[in-house]
Amino acid sequence: MGDKLELRGGKRAGAGRPPIDKNLRKMPVTIKIPKWIIDWLNEQPETKVRLIENAIIKHYNISPP
Asked: What is the pTM of this model?
């Protein structure tokens, strides 16, 4: 009875999320912005991160590495 093989859990080849490039990882940043912008961001269907990221990319005409 003690020799029962457990088939659940543990590492498996090909399992899990693939690694992401270090330059594309999102890092937490604390910023101060006016309340009216926060209110506007909260009303939008998109996430705050996506809205801010898209605005910076468009404003500065940059692209991800």
From this structure: 0.68
